[in-house]
Design goal:
Among the domains are: 146 residues, Sandwich (Jelly Rolls); 72 residues, no CATH class; 155 residues, Jelly Rolls, CATH 2.60.120.380. It is built from two helices and 23 strands. A hairpin with a 7-residue loop joins β5 and β6. It starts with 116 loop residues before the first helix and ends with a strand.
Length: 716
């Protein structure tokens, strides 16, 4: 009515603490003032009461903070249940999350049929299935009948025919296997969108649809090895190889062990007549475009003539003779001083550019690494005394990839001309790092670079196996090498308390056992540790038995840029555009209380990063086939996975409140990061608090109180 009826200096709703609504007939203040008019910053966001605190609906609002998810009247996790009707609230209206684990992975027999979760319950078609209820008609893989007559009945007994108990088909997929032959090719591609999901590899289950390729080892082309890699695929691949269709014939399996989340397999010698079945699989869901690189290494004596792309194994060359072309030990690897200069073979002879070189004759002008001069003035002369000399034939005692010269005349120069540690624009594609000795293509085990980021270079890296011609430094990290490296009785991630993630390089246990391996029910939920099925334990190394979003989350400090490493974190989150359940991630709560444009970016990262932001800690995703999809409010608001590079950037309009920012990795990648956050408040908009140096007004404006004392962005 426009009158201060109770004489407290405040008039009407929403300014009067005694008015719950416009229709309220009594302005009398309560004995205890509500939080939004008590003069206290109850939620510690730098603002007190209505209207200064944007979370206060009115002066009568009893809470300055947003209500917790379990009494906010919203279906926060999109499961059709709100607040206390949602089992994720655990009966507590003050609980901060409605999220509850899907029925098909909650470790409970929800439909009381004696089977629990995927893949054992016939009502579960995937781990994310929300309903364990069995269908009216039992599926073929849980009907008690040997449908395909192979003497094995249902899942898991008939594992060749049944991928899970809810599988509708028990037929033998090997009987209808269709392959595409790729013998002799060095690369191929395909699209598994229309493929079927008939096989599960040993290193990951379940998987999505797969394509099956065939490589025949011909009688005249025995292999010294075969390297397979799914680099540059559009989908997250899983790669496996068998020498016959049944699962017992699997030779190798890999899920994202290569660089940049690609799958990588290196097979050993393969005898003539072997037929290799190469399964290009994917994570659960629809398929997509995959790419496969094949590097066949022929054995000694093998026919190396075309057609096809053939390469002789390490230390051999393709030599043309009267009977054809065959892989033989090269002149520079035959153990003889063929040019009589007193030096034998690569890397000691100045005439040998590699072990496969067929001519040991020295050049007229000795190369820098064999001229008796300290060309780079480091006090060390020539090969093998100067470590910058890759061999006696090296014509530079300093790295070509950092000398400012286009050494190979291809129009591109060096690796990192601005010295920021990252590959620069216009960099020479053959330079693997700034320490690379030559701008020419070199094997990974002789380029002076730590290609797999494990701290070891070239022959010091166990992955090189002592062979400088090997083109992969990769070696299994301690936390997935199948060994009990620290002798504690536990092997690898997730079982060893010293392993934070699969590619963790050190299995050593911390001095004090983490909460998920200390034999104590720390969160008092009736389950103890990772080994005792506590669903809050990601791994034995998890320092908290509570689920990730039940733990106190780190708040972004009063900084624009934060430097750190994800190697000390755990794999707890995934984003819609990327990020992996196998890569450790770091989550921060960034406080931006008012509407702003927010930019978060990795201005430097030592790994292929993925960056995403949410409105809540828990991921809520709206599947396109859900009929109520438009009514579900997804929590992820931005995501960027810069393909093939370490830098990610997201930009989005923000209505105000805490942002849950996650820095993740592709595949199993982790490492050092430099993460920057900037929030820009618009002209005339609310701004502050003062300590938030990452949240400022747009250029030409500053944050200062307006006529009503409310901080807003005003012109300078």
């Amino acid at each position: 009515d426009g009158v201060d009826n109770d004489g407290d200096g405040r008039i009407d709703f929403p300014n009067e603490p005694g008015c719950d609504a416009i229709e309220d007939d009594d302005e009398t203040d309560p004995e205890v003032l509500p939080q939004c008019s008590d003069g206290i910053d109850n939620d510690f966001d730098g603002f007190a009461d209505f209207p200064a605190d944007g979370d206060c609906v009115s002066a009568a609002d009893p809470e300055e903070a947003r209500p917790p998810a379990c009494r906010d009247g919203l279906d926060n996790d999109g499961d059709g249940r709100i607040d206390l009707a949602d089992p994720g609230c655990r009966g507590d209206p003050d609980y901060f999350s409605e999220f509850n684990t899907a029925a098909c992975r909650d470790r409970l027999d929800n439909d009381e049929d004696g089977a629990t979760d995927f893949p054992d319950d016939p009502g579960c078609t995937a781990p994310t299935d929300e309903d364990e209820t069995d269908p009216a008609e039992p599926p073929a893989c849980h009907n008690g009948v040997d449908d395909d007559g192979d003497g094995l009945t249902d899942y898991p007994e008939d594992a060749e025919s049944c991928l899970f108990a809810a599988d509708e088909s028990e037929d033998d997929p090997c009987a209808r296997l269709v392959t595409r032959e790729i013998t002799g090719l060095d690369r191929t591609r395909g699209n598994s969108d229309d493929a079927t999901n008939d096989f599960n590899p040993s290193c990951r289950a379940p998987t999505g649809p797969e394509d099956v390729l065939l490589w025949r080892v011909a009688a005249d082309r025995p292999l010294d090895g075969l390297i397979l890699d799914t680099a540059e695929s559009d989908i997250d691949t899983v790669l496996s190889v068998r020498d016959a269709c049944p699962a017992a014939n699997e030779l190798a399996c890999d899920d994202n062990s290569g660089q940049g989340a690609d799958s990588h397999i290196e097979l050993g010698p393969q005898a003539p007549g072997t037929e290799l079945l190469i399964f290009v699989d994917s994570i659960p869901g629809p398929g997509g475009i995959w790419r496969l690189r094949m590097n066949p290494l022929l054995a000694q004596g093998a026919n190396c003539a075309g057609p096809g792309t053939w390469e002789c194994g390490p230390g051999m060359a393709c030599v043309v003779g009267p009977g054809g072309s065959f892989c033989t030990r090269a002149v520079c690897d035959n153990g003889r001083d063929d040019d009589g200069d007193g030096r034998v073979d690569f890397p000691a002879d100045p005439g040998c550019a590699s072990a496969a070189d067929e001519d040991e004759t020295d050049p007229p002008v000795p190369p820098q690494c064999a001229n008796g001069v300290d060309d780079d003035e480091d006090g060390l002369v020539d090969f093998p005394n100067d470590p910058r000399c890759g061999s006696a034939a090296d014509d530079s005692e300093g790295p070509d990839c950092a000398n400012g010269i286009d050494d190979d005349g291809d129009g591109s120069i060096d690796y990192d001309r601005d010295g920021d540690g990252l590959r620069g624009p216009g960099a020479d594609p053959q330079c693997a790092c700034a320490a690379d000795e030559t701008e020419l293509a070199e094997p990974a085990c002789a380029d002076g670079c730590d290609n797999d980021a494990d701290g070891f270079i070239d022959l010091d890296d166990p992955g090189c196996q002592g062979d400088p011609t090997r083109n992969s430094e990769f070696n299994l990290p301690a936390c997935r090498d199948g060994l009990d490296n620290d002798g504690d009785g536990y092997v690898d991630y997730p079982l060893d308390p010293g392993c934070n993630y699969r590619d963790d390089l050190d299995e050593t246990d911390p001095p004090e056992p983490p909460a998920c391996a200390n034999e104590v029910d720390d969160d008092e939920d009736g389950f103890i540790d990772y080994f005792g099925a506590d669903d809050g334990c990601v791994a034995a190394a998890d320092p908290d038995e509570r689920r990730a979003c039940e733990q106190p989350l780190p708040v972004w400090p009063e900084l624009v840029q934060l430097d750190g490493t994800t190697r000390s974190e755990l794999p707890e989150h995934t984003g819609e555009c990327g990020g992996s359940a196998n890569a450790p991630d770091a989550m921060f709560v960034v406080l931006v209380p008012y509407p702003a444009v927010v930019v978060a970016e990795t201005i430097g990262a030592g790994f292929d990063s993925v960056l995403y932001a949410r409105t809540d800690c828990e991921p809520v995703v709206c599947a396109s086939d859900e009929p109520d999809c438009p009514d579900v409010q997804e929590t992820e608001i931005a995501c960027d996975n810069n393909p093939g590079g370490p830098l990610s950037r997201i930009e989005f309009d923000w209505p105000g409140g805490p942002i849950f920012l996650v820095l993740d990795g592709t595949g199993t990648e982790a490492g050092v990061y430099h993460l920057r956050v900037n929030a820009t408040y618009p002209a005339g908009g609310r701004c502050g608090p003062e300590g938030h140096v990452y949240a400022l007004c747009e250029t030409g404006f500053e944050c200062r109180p307006d006529a009503e004392g409310v901080p807003t962005c005003q012109a300078l």
